[in-house]
Amino acid sequence: MSMAVDSFAASVRRFSPRLLLSELMLKQWFEPVVPFTVMIGLWAYFALTIPDYASVQSSVSLLRLFAEFGFVALAMGFCLVTGGIDLSVGAIFALCNFAALYFLLVREWPVEAAIPATLVIGALLGSINGFLIGFLKTRPFLTTLVTLIILRASVNLLNTQYAQVFATNSVESDSWDFIGGGTVLGIPINAATLFVVLLICHVFLSRSRYGWHLTAIGASRKAARHAGIRVRLMLFMTYVLSGTLCAASGIFYAARQASTDSTTGVGWEFQALTAVVLGGVSLAGGKGTVWRAMIGAVIIFLLINGLVRMGVPGYVTSAVTGLILLVAVGIDVKWSKNRGKAIQKIYVNPAFVPLAAAPAVHAGSGSPYAQNDRLINAQGIGIDQVEGPEDVILDRQGRLYGSTRDGNVIRFSGPNFETREVFAHIGGRPLGMQFDRDENLIVAVAGMGVYGVAPDGRVFKVTDETNRTWYKLNDDSRLRMADDLDIAPDGKIYFSDCTTRYEMTTNTLDILEGRPNGRVVCYDPATKTTRTVINHFYFPNGICVSHDGRSILIASTSLCKVFRHWIEGPKKGRTEVLIDELPGNPDNINRASDGTYWLALVGIRTPTFDLAARKPGFRLRMVKQVPTDEWLAPALNHGCVLKFNENGEALESWWDPTGISHSTLTSMREHQGYLYLGGLENNRIGRIKLDGVDDSWTGYDAYWGAKSRATTKVTG
Amino acid sequence: MSVQSPSRGVAATAASSRFGAALGKPSQEQIVLLITISLLVVFGLTLNGFASVSNLLNLLRSISILGVLGLGMGLIVISRGIDLSEVAIMAGSWAIALIYMQNGMSVGAGVLLALGIAVLIGIVNGVMVAFVEAPALFVTLAAGFVIYGLAFWIAPAWVVYAPKDLPSLMYFGAGRLFGIPVPILVFAVAAIAMHFFLSRTSIGRFIYAQGDNPEAARLTGIPLRPLIVLEHVLVALLAWIAGLVWIGTTGSMQMAITQGTMIFDVVLVVVIGGISLVGGRGSVFSVVVGCVLIGTLLNAFTIMDVNSEVQNIIKGVVLLVSIVLDNWLHPRDEETARQGD
Fold first, then answer.
1. Which chain B residues are closer than 8 Å to A218 by Cβ?
2. What is the pTM for the complete model shown?
């Protein structure tokens, strides 16, 4: 296995905790993991310190105690998601607990009538809040705080009035006893109901139109209003739902306890609020799930229950809950504001880059890389009419194509290429190009994938995703930055996806990071499947199918090497180094008429940059502390293309040492005795006359026509 | 949906409060004052013993604690904040100080200890709101519980009695100056000082600016974060003064008030007097008239021997009505309203 390819074992060796953390933090499921871990930890702590805590019997009774609080926390969760709050949950719960008992014991209604009646009471109480908050637009916090006082006082008044009746009577009903103490499949009935309600609420909140409306209102009330959501009605309904959930909780409590006193549900609003915020339902609204509310509720319940069992006095519990709320609110505010920044801070994780020695480039050194000025007088085509033609290519009719920064493929035609037209607008950042057998122009588009342009200019998608690496946190199935491509004789499209951690705009960071984040991917038109051929490759850039069609050449920009990967023959599937020492960062590779290859160097190595490659800490500090435009870079003020043969030996080079007209050269194509030059930052396409080459050679012929040297003939 | 342009709304309100009397369109303070006077007249005619001088002095005296607390709450509500831990600060700081005084700490040190605790809590509240940027409602609600728990831990009694024979400590609650109970004077002095602070100092004007539009205030260069901390410290300071009066009046500090509805009486006083929850509106006068109205009602309730739960319901309904009215008079603009307040 060569150095460019990072095996699973190698990536374990290369493990970076910071990198793992940054990718973890990007995950949607990361946030609930923290409270979930706290929940498990808390349970484990109590299981170890309180005897018999984890036994089945004890767990069942815990569940039975928890369920009612769970309903109340769920009600609070819904209100928070809409950006509001319902502080009257505890009081509504207490009043519904009273109402259920009142209907059964004083009115002597049957259970089947008392339960719906109690639910209606809850909904009505909720509708008071809903009316005030939804339609009169009062502030949820203060409004529900005041309804809390009013309802609490009412409950106390009613309790004293009926305490006698409740104490001396009891409900004679099997179904009522079942609600109070029954089990379903060993689970207490109230917990089982809570679970079913949670499932329904989850589907409602995350999958239904109205659930989305609620979240939208919470995220931005103004935007929701502009989008035509009936904000006032939705808010009204939320508080009705909250009241109904509290009523359900009150019914179970009434069936279980069969009593009511002035402490029923006192402080539950505060505990539920703490629980829901702790679970990660944002106070700002618009963020949160049913499960997260429940995780928080379990934490608070276990904590309070555990503290009570350990004999901790109530005021300490109160102080602890208050502190937890303070901390949770603080974390919620700071986290939702700074999450992106925090990820950004630890996302870049430079590593040691194993560079080989750099060959000499100065003029007169006698090396094939020696600087010269053979490109200085290159003829300019379409000056100021193209912006950064990363790749250039010519078709059979001799028309010239350039892929530009503005998402276009520009075509120049006419004897001196004076006619400019937008051949196709693909979008993204079109980079490498190649013609397939049917003369469709296949383009690697950064940010989009691989696209094709038919001869009539119609754009079609070839592929935009590949198989996902199972052990990676970072979902790498999407093609992030398809860079260059080439087509094998059997029609398979091989292309490089140079980074899976960055984007077109930030790909410099990938080079500075110096990790094998890229990959080589293959699209098979026969099966229409896309598979990753080589995973974990150091910034693969240029791709060229060898003249014989049995291997592909891959340029690694950050390692400054060229690799050969066999796709046919006895060595099929193996990757080997073709050119170990390059004086610069290689970009595209293309075929030459004499059976050799052209290679463009986008940057020239410098001793300082090579030193930086060996110092990951230095690069990390640079990325964090120095403005982007002052980052150390390879020498970008030169243009250089070179020629190498099948054995990886460099033959000669062409330079623009001034960099005035052709710096950062990324591509070159030979066509009928001329060499056409494209560059990432250039405002033109260059052209020089080549001496002593086959004047009739064209790229299309070399691939699909008479000039092909392919040894594997595929009938297509 | 009625969307009122904010500029028009502000202009209209400013006009109504400044030129209200002249144009014959009464402001909220004046309406409340009228209601209060008519209530006084009605109660004076119908309730036995209401209109006596001693009862009226008693009435004023009973509202002075509420009034001092209301001045603090008024200040913070004008700045578009709120402090639900004010009563807990009062009870917590003084309960701890009284316990230490029982154990031999001198009066001066005890008073300073209470002040120190109160200011510390104010700073913590302020930092949480200003620098952590957590909503004031949640911070101060949670702070109330934390203060209650910690204070109870240190001073584990529902009623902490002040040491006997400390006339200097009792003076502000029980003393009389020129025949007038000192609590009334404390309220008066605090109100006048607050009035001058809010209307005559630049910091006071900054508080109004912040309440009117925090973003604009910040952009004009007002140091918003230190200002918020200062506001919470001032609230704590007024809570401390109210606690001094409370101890003088009752000879003790009751922790139960942190769990009760007293904080809502304070909010009620402020909102009913015309200090809108949208911030930037109202003045010390609002607190005074709100206080007199609530004091009159509470006094009448006491004479009529109304059950405390029924009192809570009535106060709750009144507060709800005033919140709805406040919202109706000063509607939040759907386009500029921020989430979560």
1. 339
2. 0.79
Q: Please report residues of B whose CB lies closer than 8 A to that of A317.
A: 149
What CA–CA distance (Å, rounded) separates A470 from A483? 24
Kindly determine whether residue A150 and residue B313, on different chains, have CB atoms separated by under 8 Å: yes
Q: Which residue has the tokens 């150095």?
A: A3
Chain A: residue whose CA lies nearest to B260 = A149
The pLDDT value recorded for residue A12 is 60
A329–B138 CB contact, under 8 Å: yes
From B73's Cα to the closest Cα of chain A, the distance in A is 14
Residues 282-311 of chain B whose Cβ lies under 8 A from any Cβ of chain A: 307, 309-310
Residues forming a β-bridge with A518: A537
Tokens of A349: 């994780």
Lookup: tokens for B84: 């639900």
CB contact (8 A) between residue B316 and residue A149? yes
The complex's ipTM? 0.82
pLDDT of residue B168 exceeding 90, the answer is: no
Helices vs strands, H then E, count in chain B: 15, 4
CA atoms of B194 and B200, how far apart (whole Å) = 10
- DSSP-derived 3-state class of residue B183: helix
More confident site: A671 or B306: A671
Q: Which residue of A has its CA nearest to B311?
A: A153
User: CA A486 → CA A410, A490, A491, B296, distances in Å?
Assistant: 20, 12, 9, 89
Please state, in angstroms and rounded to a whole number, the distance separating the CA atoms of residues A145 and B84.
11
The verdict on a CB contact (< 8 Å) between B320 and A143 is: yes
Query: For chain A, what is the radius of gyration of the CA atoms?
Result: 35
DSSP annotation of A358: P
pLDDT on residue A11:
60
Distance CA A21, CA A344 (A): 11
Give A213's contacts (C-beta < 8 A, 6+ positions apart): A224, A229, A230, A234
Q: Do A132 and B134 touch (CB under 8 A)?
A: no
Q: B-chain residues within 8 Å CB-CB of A153?
A: 309-310, 312-313, 316
Contact A326 B137 (CB under 8 A): no
Cα–chain center distance at B281:
15
* Strand, coil or helix: B310: helix
